[in-house]
């Protein structure tokens, strides 16, 4: 039975416990310390920023708004070239004319190069358009970071160069944890390479 008098405390503790239990892995599924994985991501960001790489963020639903949010924060605060697919005309045309599975992959295939970065945000880690985006980015030789949650055997958590899996089981909890991880990466980058966070 739920103790509603302590609901907020338990909710925050659940997210905190999930974040502390995050499993970071590399492209060979080797488990990494989360701190060092985030620092590697920040270091790679600096390398890619120096060559004016494009940072492509992809997500569906609430994760799409998180992708747009971080894309803007990175553009404004970190001097990164960023991109998301959020135009209604693109989403509807690609979904109608090709397939919804292609809404990210189509743009990645036409616009991105090996120096670029794909960051996927998916609570389930199994969205077909996220998986196709990752595979297209891999074919291009891009650097790929995945954030996922829910089931431990989700597809995307073994497909990136860096993968962050949060072992929480509802969308709201996973999304909250993903937001914290994304801001942690960006703040780490700003603190280490850009004179500090704003």
Word description of this protein:
The chain is an alpha/beta fold. It contains seven helices and seven strands. 42% of the residues are buried. The mean pLDDT is 97.
Distance between the termini: 42 Å
Secondary-structure element order, N to C: HEEHEHEHHEHEEH
Shape: globular
**What oligomeric state do these chains adopt?**
single chain
The biggest beta sheet, please?
Answer: 7 strands, mixed
Low-confidence stretches: none
Helix content: 40-55%
Instruction: Provide the residue-averaged pLDDT.
Output: 97
Q: How are the strands of the biggest sheet laid out side by side? A: 2-1-7-6-5-3-4
The count of DSSP E runs of length 2 or more, i.e. the number of strands, is 7
Rg from alpha-carbon coordinates: 17 Å
Query: Number of helix segments?
Result: 7
Beta-strand content: 15-25%
Q: Structural class, from secondary structure content? A: alpha/beta
């Amino acid at each position: 039975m739920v103790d509603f008098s302590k609901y907020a405390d338990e909710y925050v503790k659940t997210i905190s416990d999930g974040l502390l239990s995050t499993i970071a892995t590399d492209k060979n599924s080797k488990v990494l310390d989360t701190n060092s994985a985030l620092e590697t991501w920040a270091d790679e960001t600096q390398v890619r920023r120096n060559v004016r790489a494009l940072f492509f963020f992809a997500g569906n639903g609430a994760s799409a708004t998180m992708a747009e949010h971080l894309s803007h924060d990175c553009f404004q605060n970190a001097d990164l070239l960023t991109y998301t697919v959020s135009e209604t005309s693109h989403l509807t045309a690609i979904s109608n004319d090709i397939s919804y599975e292609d809404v990210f992959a189509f743009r990645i295939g036409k616009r991105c190069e090996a120096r670029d970065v794909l960051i996927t945000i998916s609570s389930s880690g199994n969205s077909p358009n996220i998986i196709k985006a990752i595979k297209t980015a891999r074919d291009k030789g891009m650097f790929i970071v995945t954030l996922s949650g829910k089931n431990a055997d989700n597809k995307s958590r073994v497909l990136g160069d860096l993968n962050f899996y949060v072992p929480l089981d509802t969308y709201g909890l996973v999304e909250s944890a993903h937001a914290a991880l994304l801001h942690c990466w960006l703040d780490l980058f700003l603190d280490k390479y850009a004179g500090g966070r704003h």
